[in-house]
Structure formats: C-alpha cells, structure tokens
Design a protein that fits this description.
The complex is a heterotrimer of chains A (182), B (226) and C (193). Chain A is an alpha+beta fold. Helices cover 40% and strands 18% of the residues of chain A. Chain A has one domain: Beta-Lactamase (2-Layer Sandwich), CATH 3.30.450.70. Helix content of chain C is 45%, strand content 16%. In chain C, strand 2 and strand 3 form a beta hairpin. In chain C, helix 3 (44-70) crosses helix 6. The chains are: A alpha+beta (182), B alpha+beta (226), C alpha+beta (193). The interface between A and B is medium-sized, with 17 and 19 residues. Strand 1 (11-13) of chain B pairs antiparallel with strand 1 of chain C, so a sheet runs across the interface.
Chain lengths: 182, 226, 193
C-alpha cells in the first residue's frame, strides 16, 4: 500500500493539514481541498445515520470490542484509538482507497492510498474472498498509520506552544515526522 | 545510578513538566498585564477593583485576560507587546532562579548520597559550572550541556546544541517569529543557571542567545577570576 | 473493578512514558505558585485563578496525548470516566492513583482523594500559622482542577472540578470534587456508534 495524501480535519470539518507525501494524485486548487474536506466531513456524518436495520432493529455495525476501556483498565496496554465506528470508514475505488480515522475530540485523519491490488491468477470464485482479505489487510495497515499519526500529532502539534487549537498546522517538524511514518 | 537511589527516587511523566513549562510564558504575560493594568488605572477615580475576591472556574469561552482574543487553546497572548518586556522576562527569569536555587540543593544531596561520601568534589567555580553542565542539565533535559568554555577571568560560555525547551517551537508565522518568541522562553534556563550558582554563593549575570536554532549559547559573567 | 486495580495504566507508564525526577516537577510548580503569591501580593484568589487558567490550557492539549497513547474510548457512565481519570490519567501523568469515593445517589458527583505525598505538594509547607488567610484561600494544587476541566471539555463533558479539602491547609486529606453538569451531546462527533 502506498500512501498518497494525508489530511487532517478539525472538529468543525475545516481542513487544517494537507500533505501529499507521495506523488500519484492530481493536485487540486486550494479551494477544492477545502470543499473535499467539508464534503468528507458531511458524508462521514450522514453515513453514521444510515444504519442498516433488520425488522426495524439496528444491526450492530460495531466490529470493535465495546468494552475497550475495561480491557485498557485490566491490561494497562495501549488500545486502538480510532473511535470512528459507524461513520464512513473507507472508500474503495479502482484508482485509490480512502480511509477515515476519528478521535474522541472530533479530529479526523484522512489517508488516500493506492487501491487494493488486483488479484489476477485466481479462479473467479475465489476472487471475492481474496479481495476481501486484501481490503482488511489494507484497512489494518491504514489503522496502524493512523495510530502513529495521532501520536505525532499529540507530540508535535499539541506540544507546540505557538499552535492555536483548530488552526492550520504549519510546522516543518511535523511534516518531517509525517514523512517518516509513511 | 545505584540501586538504593532508584528505590527512593520517584518519577513523573516528562510531558507533565513540559506542558507546565509551556504555560509559564503566557501566564507571565497575563500576570504582568493585570498588574500593569491595575497600576495605571488606580489614578482614574472610576476604576473598580481589578483584583477578584472569589475563585472562578475557567471555561472554554472565557477570556483569560484583557489581552484581545486571549481565549483558552489560542496563543494570541504571545502577540502581546509585553512578550519581550522586562516585566515579563524578569518574572520568567525569577521562576528559573527560584527553581535553580532549590534544585541545586536536591541534586547535591542526591549525588552525595549516591557516592556515599559527604565531601562533594565541588571546590572551585569550574566544578560548579561542570555541575550545571552535567547534573543540573541531566536532571532537566536528560542530556548534558554540549560545550563549556571559559576565559579564566570569570566568564563562561555554555552551549547546548539542541536545546529541548525550544526545539519544538514552531510559529505558523515563520522562522523569524519563532526566533523572536523563543527568546522569551530562554529566560527560564538563564534563571535556573543564575539560581544554581547563587546556591554556591556565586553572583552572576546570565544571558542566552540562539546561535543556530535550536542551538543555544549561555553567557555567564561572574566576578570570580578562575 | 477490584480485579483490574492491580494493573491500572502500569504497562503504558512503564514502557511508553519518558520520566523525570518528581522533585524537578515539584520544585518547578512550587516556584510558580510562590512567584504568583508574591506577584499578587498574597491575593490568593487571584493565584488560584491563574493556576486554574494554566491548568485549563494544559488540559485542552493534554487530552490528545492521553487519547493517542492509551486508546481510551467514550465512557458509558460517569463512574467509568472517574475510574479512567484516576487509574489511567493520574497514573500516566503523575504516577499516582487517587481513590474515588463519596458518590452521590445520582452517580454524577464524586470525590478524588489524592494520595500523600503527591508530586505537586511533596516537601511543601504553607505558612498557615503566620498567615491565617492562606489556609482559608489558597488552593495550592488548583492547576489540577483546571487540567481536568479542560481535558473533559474536549471530550464533550461539562464538569465542575474544585478542591474541597487540602492537607496543606491542615485538612485530614486532599479531596477534589467532580460534578458532571452535562454531556454536551450536540458536540459529540458523529460516527462513534
């Protein structure tokens, strides 16, 4: 998986950080990036409302353990910090994949990556299964990147005394650290 | 570090200190602003009591001072003209001075305990400087000072090639702004060094300059010929 | 609950935290409080308020550190929140674990009892015999209230946090009162569950 771009959105859906870490995507105008951020923010939220139901009852879409805090208290070990459960989590296309991570404070980290690898030499019947596995694998990889992104965000943005919350992040130090992750 | 010292030593997260130190400059500006406000307005008869007589809990939309746009989470307070005013820098230097004065005691006590001998080896001013470079810096920043020079007439130059307190500073307005604002932060370590020296009875003046960000040079002048 | 108390945030504290001598922290904080007392000419309410502001600003930033390095999820009850604050929050940042007691019947108010000595007050003695005002007015560790209030605000919890007792004042223990005013439901990010 190759990461093309990283975006960070504040809790109001404003784009506060954008970094094309690898070439591969067309560049948009500054305004289009803002629109893209706002749109993803909106789609993410509306997706959370579109919850599948069976016979009028909500289906649990939750694939994470919801007793994560209990696990944390019992093990004292770092847990997954992605709290995006029912919102839009990923978009998969033939040309790129997009993943969304959200913190409890409402910050969104967005990754645009290369698409799932196409599986050629498998029989038709197995393709769906194989692709599903690839998707999960890529999702796991993305989540791993998100975890590190959140940590460097807390280390290099939150602990910069000159940084105002919710404002655009202009820090060469943070840029460097982001590059090291992907 | 020996075993028994580890037993008695307690620790806290370095980030707790880092975040506390970050707030020293904004707080100094707010305090200075408030004190200056109160002295300038006592002349006007309409002035009401500026100082509160009750405790207030800070909330998210509350002005933290009468400085424009000084709201929680923002850094507008650093744009105050007071940033490099003596009123503010002396206050910051004083935090450091008092810290250095006491920290030296604690560290001396600990090193003596560790070595199991009462005679510490600090006999002249160069030893004191080495104490600053090694013990004090190590305690503060988990590293030693990178260079120590002297002209043997009471002037010392201490260099930290990557000074931790400012290494993470990064103004959205660019390198020049980062540099200007960083200078205010440097009064804290100046105070710490002056306080440490005072603990040994040595009077000094300490200034700092950013040679090549984030390298910092501390210039120490004492009246002692060494 | 009792089963888990053995571990707390131990693993994160031991392996993922850069540590410093607690004396350094104690002395730095002490130097700040002492200077504020001098600056405001012993108007201790002003001192409390400045400490609270410092803490609040710290809390707003510290919460991201906390979430990024623990993976704490939204708590279902305020009881759960208090347990996380004590066993994970205090543990990771100050290496102490306050006890939680004095729950109100509606489960919205409780007390954190700080262990003695703690890294803010160790070696500190207030001149309570010579300055009677100080024992009535100064909340030496008020910064903690600001930190908690600021951090909780960021996870959409409106909570009153204040000291009711302090050993430094001559009280029998150091007690912080927490009161959940409301969960800021409108501000909770979409998509959590």
């Amino acid at each position: 998986m190759k990461v093309y771009s990283i975006y960070i959105l504040n809790k109001a859906g404003g784009l506060i950080y954008q970094n094309d870490v690898n070439p591969g995507l067309n560049r948009l105008s500054a305004n289009d990036y803002l629109v893209l951020a706002g749109t993803l923010h909106g789609v993410h939220a509306i997706a959370a409302k579109v919850t599948p139901t069976i016979n009028g009852k909500e289906v649990a879409t939750n694939e994470y353990p919801n007793n994560q805090n209990a696990i944390l208290l019992a093990s004292g070990k770092l847990q997954d910090s992605n709290s995006n459960k029912s919102g839009l989590q990923s978009i998969e296309t033939d040309l790129f994949n997009l993943y969304i991570f959200q913190t409890l404070t409402g910050i969104k980290f967005i990754l645009i990556t290369s698409p799932n690898p196409v599986v050629h030499n498998l029989q038709q019947i197995n393709r769906e299964v194989a692709n599903k596995g690839e998707l999960n694998k890529q999702y796991a990889q993305a989540n791993e990147i998100f975890k590190h992104l959140y940590i460097i965000y807390s280390d290099y943005v939150m602990k910069d005394p000159f940084y105002s919350l919710d404002m655009p992040i202009k820090s060469s130090l943070f840029d460097t650290k982001v590059k090291e992750i992907v | 570090m020996s075993e028994d010292l580890l037993d008695t030593q307690t620790y806290v997260n370095s980030i707790s200190l880092q975040l506390l130190l970050q707030e020293l400059v904004p707080t100094s500006i707010r305090v200075s602003h408030k004190l200056l406000d109160s002295t300038s307005s006592t002349t006007s008869p309409s002035s009401t009591v500026l100082f509160t007589d009750s405790d207030e809990a800070t909330t998210i939309d509350q002005q933290l001072s009468s400085i424009p746009k000084d709201l929680p989470g923002t850094v507008h307070v650093l744009d105050s003209s007071l940033l490099s005013d003596d009123e503010v820098t002396l206050r910051i230097e004083n935090y450091g001075y008092n810290l250095g004065l006491k920290l030296a005691d604690v560290l001396l006590y600990k090193t003596n305990n560790k070595n199991g001998n009462i005679n510490n080896k600090i006999i002249d001013i160069l030893d004191i400087m080495k104490f600053v470079c090694r013990d004090v810096w190590k305690c503060l920043y988990n590293k030693q000072m990178d260079n120590l020079r002297t002209n043997h007439r009471g002037t010392f130059v201490l260099v930290d090639n990557s000074y931790k307190l400012i290494a993470n500073l990064n103004s959205a307005k660019g390198a020049h702004d980062t540099l200007t604002k960083s200078k205010t932060y440097l009064w804290l370590p100046c105070g710490i060094i002056r306080g440490t020296l005072m603990n040994f009875g040595v009077e000094s003046t300490v200034t700092a300059e950013i040679t090549q960000f984030p390298a910092v040079t501390f210039n120490i002048h004492t009246a002692i010929n060494n | 609950m009792s089963k888990s108390s053995k571990y707390n945030g131990d693993d994160i504290w031991k392996n993922n935290v850069e540590k410093i001598n607690s004396e350094l922290f104690t002395l730095t904080y002490g130097s700040v409080v002492a200077q504020l007392c001098r600056d405001f000419n012993n108007n201790y309410h002003e001192v409390n308020n400045q400490l609270d502001k410092m803490g609040y600003n710290i809390g707003l930033r510290l919460i991201e550190e906390f979430l990024a390095k623990t993976g704490v999820r939204r708590c279902q009850t305020f009881r759960e929140t208090s347990e996380i604050i004590s066993k994970i929050g205090f543990k990771i940042f100050l290496n102490i674990v306050p006890t939680i007691e004095n729950w109100s019947s509606d489960n919205k108010t409780c007390s954190l009892i700080l262990p003695e000595p703690n890294p803010l007050t160790e070696f500190v003695e207030l001149p309570i015999t010579t300055d009677s005002k100080i024992s009535k007015e100064l909340w030496y560790s008020q910064i903690l209230c600001g930190v908690l209030r600021g951090a909780l605000q960021m996870v959409q919890l409106d909570v009153d946090v204040n000291f009711v007792k302090d050993v430094l004042r001559g009280d029998d223990r150091t007690e912080i009162r927490l009161k959940l005013n409301k969960v800021l439901k409108d501000e909770i990010p979409a998509g959590e569950d």
